[in-house]
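Sync notes, pocket subgroup
Present: LS, DG
LS reminded everyone that the earlier model was apo-only. Rerun requested with sulfopyruvate included. Inputs:
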Amino acid sequence: MSQPPTSHPRLLAWIDEVAALTTPDRIVWCDGSEAEWTRLTDELVDSGALVRLDQKKKPNSFWARTDPSDVARVEERTYICSDDEADAGPTNNWMAPAEMKQLMTGLYRGCMTGRTMYVVPFCMGPLDAADPMFGVELTDSPYVVASMRIMTRMGSDVLSSMGADADFVPALHSVGAPLSKDQTDAAWPCNETKYISHFPETREIWSFGSGYGGNSLLGKKCFALRIASVAARDEGWLAEHMLIMKLTSPEGVVRYIAGAFPSACGKTNLAMLDPTLDGWKVETVGDDIAWMRFGEDGRLWATNPEFGLFGVAPGTDFHTNPNAMRTLAEGNSVFTNVALTDDGDVWWEGMGEPPAHLTDWKGKDWTPASDAPSSHPNSRFCTPIEQCPILADEYHDPRGVPIDAILFGGRRKTTIPLVSEARDWVHGVYLGATLSSETTAAAVGQVGVVRRDPMAMLPFIGYHAGDYFQHWIDMAKGASGDAAKLPKVFYVNWFRRGDDGRFLWPGFGENSRVLKWVAERLDGKADAIETPIGHVPTPEALDLTGLDIDPADLAAVLRVDPAEWQAEIPQVTEWFNRFGDKLPAVLWSELDALKARLADA
Ligand code: GTP
Ligand code: SPV
Ligand code: MN
């Protein structure tokens, strides 16, 4: 082992302990340098784990294929190991911490044999934050190291900032595939047995068996949402699955908007939106995670703790998300489970006409006549956020941005109108708590099933969801008692469909029309109809300049159908019942009030 570049006693002791357990052949401290990136990616290319893309088309970029069994987050294998089972609540898997540690210690024993253990010091959010949030990931996956370098601030600077005594979240990761002598490595080593475990009291993460994104890049969902949500509950802030954007009107009025949509439901696209409305400007602050704290002004300020974008590839194109395409053209990216073109570029469904021949995500020949898609529906690009051409300057500011509006949204074919505005904060919390969406390929399991996904955080709340709802309601107290300082809450749905299955609303850049209505509501300018579910724009209140939309489609996408909403009531009741007496009573009152309004409608 090379001389450790730190004297941090707790870190050194932990590394010794993990090394003794997992028995790696060597330990490498990651410095985050360009030279290190080059060495790692060269090694991965030499071993066949990565393919280097064409230097002109995608400079310094790579194509990765996973094992076909390791393509998404594994919610069934994800655990919140709180001391008390009641603290994990009904929405999380739970195991007692000692039991989980014993079980996983068995799995970890010798699991890094034949491999390198990388020490990855990282920081979620800017290093010059008042209270930088450090983590250290120990991993035996060089793919994870390369990805962590894109997704987080990582390396020597972080280690020096940590000094000898900074607090950090220890995050242990292994693909769970020890290598014996003479054994050739798999292109994507992983283990059929997977555990993604969180210990909220001790703020630790133990991950085993998967190399995929949310299961293995432990700064992201595991730290910045599951562990951070627990810290946020204790300290009076919010760690949320939200995009953050800066919206500027033609008059130069700036609004900061956060948006919580479940996985693969449009956060990255909205965060990077290219407005079709003249004079409106969107700039990106974050596309997946927001940490929101009260400022001295009593307003809620949001920061993006990440350093990269880990975005859904299929559907991304110059027509839908040109800013993502421009970000990727800069290179320095890793593409996972997309298709490879014969001239060394990447391709995926939604990127216009398919080439005559591709190598698909399983490494097989693919032609337009092939039955299966060329790219996995949860294939991803991993790319530095600083390459985004519309990155807001405020991204770098450790104080973040003061949030004017929160959008909740999901993927619903029916019922939910294009946009509605909550009546007040508690009604907004009700909308978030009852948010529903069709499941997507971002998690292993059936796709297209409607489920409740509160605040788009169902798989990410690190404690009891009933307590989480109460925490959201209590945020009203943080605003120095002035509810007017809280963000206004809106509920959007880009995915409503007609009887023929078509999307009723064109989405993407056209969503700027909805953003304009939101901004005008904040200014008290735009018209709305009061419906039982909240304030919905009149068709005239939406700026439809230059948009060719059938008036019948517009009416259908804005429609609030009391019968459809009545049909949701038993599902919401059943959902709320799951939380027993942990469900804040005011949410039952909101449901009762909704029922009464629907009965009168
Ligand atoms: P995660 O990274 O999993 O959290 O996903 P996300 O919420 O960032 O979703 P993303 O923006 O990557 O979009 C997911 C899928 O929805 C992509 O295939 C997009 O093309 C598609 N999508 C995004 N916005 C819209 C929209 O306004 N309308 C339609 N029809 N599809 C959209
Ligand atoms: C999500 O599923 O919400 C993602 C991808 O952003 S992952 O990093 O795998 O969680
Ligand atoms: Mn996400």
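DG: DSSP finds 16 helices and 31 strands in the chain.
LS: The chain has a mean pLDDT of 97.
Action: DG to write up.
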